[in-house]
Design brief:
homodimer; mainly alpha; Arc Repressor Mutant, subunit A; three-stranded antiparallel sheet; 7 helices; about 10% strand; globular; DNA-binding
Chain lengths: ~160, ~160
DNA sequence: ACTATTTAAATCGCGTGCGATATAATTTTC
DNA sequence: GAAAATTATATCGCACGCGATTTAAATAGT
């Protein structure tokens, strides 16, 4: 019983951890062209989809803590890709909006997904298998992620 | 076509990244009891399975770079859990061995997998689904990981 | 109204994670 | 067998990622 559990977890959790880093590495050459990191890319994905959101909106979508998001956004602001400003309705909230430069980056990033699939093609998983993998991970994400914030987590 | 790719990758890569961090968070309360971090736990897993290996052995098993492993091992050494010493055969190599304290930690860690499964039980994935998830991730890990080192990656 | 609680961001400290580079020991090449 | 290439590890700098704490603003409780 305990042995079975032990085997299960040793085999599962490490691959998630390792694959996550390998995927980030796969993105790197494409993101280097834009001068941004993978977490910065994720934050921009959120903003490209819906501009003018709060720090907390981004934090929840990416399942990150404030102390990770705040410095990340400051770097994006220093790069001139976003602007941060206090909300006038609620002065605790900080609104994040894309600059023209940040918006312009979207079209330059448009080819990344396509090229990334090329990098991942050596895995020889079929599209169906990838979809199934994503479906299972989404279920884990929803149940584990909702323990911290019951909000919608979708990046789709 | 390009749109299909875009949807596929936006939906897949982020869940891997988020789930990886959520799993690390799930380990944290158990690892806190031992005073170690998740990457340190992984390094110890390698050593508990096979003692007296080189830095490179650990680096390859964990799919990490030297500049991550070296400081990590130094911290484990400072904690008194391992010892590092130059190989006499090849003085470039550094051999890593468990101290009695490091070896004693294994039995204290023995209940972690079981308890972790409890933390993950809210995901309501069946054992078969977990196994399938792991199988797919292992295929990704093998093909992506082998681009950097053709060695065996198994932690099992 | 006024204090207590909650909420939104920010700050601090520390441990990864990695690109780039350095250093030293071994192996290869000619 | 000496120079060149390779291998094993370490060092440096920077960007996360997060626990813990802080600050300020809004809301709740009385």
């Amino acid at each position: 019983m305990a042995t079975e559990h032990l085997k299960l977890e040793n085999q599962l959790c490490f691959p998630v951890y390792a694959v996550s880093r390998l995927i980030t590495r796969a993105y790197q050459p494409f993101l280097d062209e834009l001068g941004i990191t993978y977490p910065q890319y994720l934050a921009l994905l959120v903003l490209w989809e819906k501009d003018n959101v709060t720090v907390n909106d981004i934090r929840q979508k990416l399942v990150l803590n404030t102390n990770t998001v705040t410095p990340l956004l400051k770097r994006l602001e220093t790069m001139g890709l976003i602007r941060r400003s206090k909300s006038t309705q609620d002065e605790r909230k900080v609104l994040v909006e894309l600059t023209p430069e940040g918006r312009a980056l979207e079209s330059r990033a448009a080819t990344i997904p396509e090229r990334l699939v090329g990098s991942l093609s050596t895995t020889d998983l079929s599209v169906d298998e990838w979809m199934d993998l994503k479906a299972k991970l989404d279920r884990v994400l929803t149940s584990l992620g909702s323990q911290q914030n019951p909000t919608d987590l979708g990046l789709d």
